[in-house]
Amino acid sequence: MRTVKAQTITDTIVQLCMEANYNLGDDMLAAFDKALTKERSAAGRGVLEMFKENAQIARTQRLPYCQDTGFVICFVDIGQDVHIDGGFLEDAINEGVRRGYKEGYLRASIVGDPFNRKNTGDNTPAVVHAQIVPGDKLTLMIMAKGGGCENRSKYKMCTPAEGVEGAKNFVIECLKTAGPDACPPLIAGVGIGGTFEKAALLSKRALFRTIGEPNPNPEVNALEQELLSKANKLGIGPQGYGGDTTAFAIHINTYPCHITSLPVAVTIECHAHRHKEAVL
Amino acid sequence: MAGEEVRRLTTPLSDADIESLHAGDRVRLSGVVLTGRDAAHKRLIDLLDAGQPLPVDVRGQVIYYVGPSPPRPGMVIGSAGPTTGGRMDSYAPKLMALGLKGMIGKGARSLPVREAMRQTKCVYFGAVGGAGALLSKYIKSAEIIAYEDLGTEAIRRLVVEDFPVIVVDDVHGNDLYEEGRKQYAQE
Questions:
Q1: Is A41 close to B184, i.e. CB distance below 8 A?
Q2: How many cross-chain Cβ pairs, A to B, lie less than 8 Å apart?
Q3: Of A41, A279, B5, B119, which one has the fewest beta carbons inside 10 Å?
């Protein structure tokens, strides 16, 4: 049994929240450069150049890349030989969010109740998805998830008869309806299989993969490539101004499912794809 | 569609300015711009519906749909990019009827909003969503003028200089998103 202090979790979350918001990943910067070599639209290229400049300012001035500093989604993989000492896991995470958002001058974007809609003032609570995994490490993965793109995420329970074609059509439909509203170029996290909630979780988790890193199953990766190519023929383009870059990546995760079901969940993510992780 | 030249405009915008703009035109905006998003719009419209006066005069103004991040000490404003304009669709025509002349946001507007824009001479500009750090550099001052309790959603009076926007919906019935997609869609 290995002990991880709750305080260490809090301190780590503080740093992850700030770093995610100031430092866009190298994979995203590479995706901007790659798109610039292919994009035919001058307006689209202008937008991609602005993303690069924005990332540079955010990184050097420690200013959030996007003013919507997001809902903190935290996946925690807890090794089954880990003991958390000195506090409750979710409290430790929320304290980290509270401090990180205050100390980092990050925006409080969470309302405490969906109906009365009063802002909690400190961006808590986070959405925590914890699971027990083999080993004695604790992995914290956070994403600062913007509202504009999250609002375009969708779920469909396809029938087995609709099959892979049904799933493909639904993913493309989601990107189409996300359109300019969700700040394209987009990334689609896709969960196929499992149940209603499992598919949604798979779709979120798929976004933590390095941009463009293929699903290890070649068949699934072929699907990812096919959908990316289709997405980039939609014409939506950077910010919806028209162009060849509507999506940077489609990441698909799959899971076994019931004989009656073909669940498909699509989490829409924007170019402000902010996530960081740490292993304790 | 977007020409290479950039128009420079200063608020308040005249009807002639607005009629001269076409979807895809790149514009650098200077002058006073008000901020307002979901919660502030709801309060303004609730007041209007109750026949009460508004805390801000929107006549001739441009509203920027933004909820900035908090400024670090010594800074004018934090990160300040646009939020999705479509969420303000149910409110916007009532403000246009009072004389609102421009909106800055990102994302598509509904057909009734575009029709109201045509009738009242109001233009919808797009700013680059998610480029909040960069866009904040064009904001020279910011002060809260109403609804301070709403925090990021309070109504602010900004002074901007050469703030980069593009015309999304003009008063001639054109929409940059539709035109852009048509031009680049394959199959």
A1: yes
A2: 177
A3: B5
